[in-house]
Amino acid sequence: MKLFRKYFTLESSPDEPNQGINILNVGHNIHPANHPYPDIQHPNDYYFEWDKGRSLKEYQIIYISKGEGYFEANGLPPQVIEAGTIILLYPGVWHRYRPKETTGWEEYWVGFSGTYAHYLLEQECFNPQNPIIIVGFNTEFLETFSKLIEVIEARGEFFQKLSSFLLIHLLGIVYASVLLSNRKMSRKEEIIDKIRNEIHQNWDKDIDFEALAKGFNLSYIWFRKTFKEVLGTSPNQYHLTFKLRKAEQLIQETNMTLAEIAYRSGFESEFYFSRIFKKKMNYNASDLRRKK
């Protein structure tokens, strides 16, 4: 698979209101295992050496969607970062982070400033001394982030205003995640969260959900009922949606053929993949490929 990196910088336009949000940069990178970090394509203004670390003049949201790594900041013990983690960076706070050599990681990020950003991130629930936020696999968050990158890449009419609204939406999701994280998970939610992580790790494989439930010492009937109660959908539908989102990502970010993507994503044929993609996503996979 082709390694993927997108990085955009922006400047505010005096003719375009930014809703109190000024987006400075946004990007998405798949960093492979056993490669130095940051890689040589990292922008000079944001490049840092691990021994020295860095501090920024802006806020940043960094979302690690896959892989594991480490994060350190002033006044904090070293933190292990897992997939599904947001790192919230504040201006002027020294920090450093990197993926584990054995796993690499996939990262999304957006840098921003502005009066509304400052107001929101100074709320009591946010804290520079507690910058790690666990959101897990959040479909709405990833879709919004991908849309933000798409809007900025296209640079269409009113893109600055639209990108500002998308960032406000992202911040709202982060805000809600922080509030929810302050509420202790129920036992049901803890179990389903662990099972959901298993699905994410094996997204491209056939999953025997009866065997999966048995592995957690659960009855299959209880598992199905509780999964839908907690996540609002059945295990099979959740797995299918996740597979399609990952396939959508491969279409956008690689040069693999649709047949290769279908096979990589665990579908039995390109025809079946294209049919189910159209049914669930409401547009053709081939149309998405032509937009690249």
Automatic annotation (TrEMBL):
Record-linked SMART domains: HTH_ARAC
Family annotation (InterPro entries): AraC-bd, Homeodomain-like_sf, HTH-like, HTH_AraC, HTH_AraC-typ_CS
Keywords: DNA-binding, Membrane, Transcription, Transcription regulation, Transmembrane, Transmembrane helix
GO terms assigned for molecular function: DNA-binding transcription factor activity; sequence-specific DNA binding
Residue spans crossing the bilayer: 162-180
Pfam families cross-referenced by the UniProt entry: AraC_binding, HTH_18
Domain HTH araC/xylS-type: 193-291
SUPFAM superfamilies assigned: Homeodomain-like, Regulatory protein AraC
Name used for this protein in its record: Transcriptional regulator, AraC family
Species for this entry: Runella slithyformis (strain ATCC 29530 / DSM 19594 / LMG 11500 / NCIMB 11436 / LSU 4)
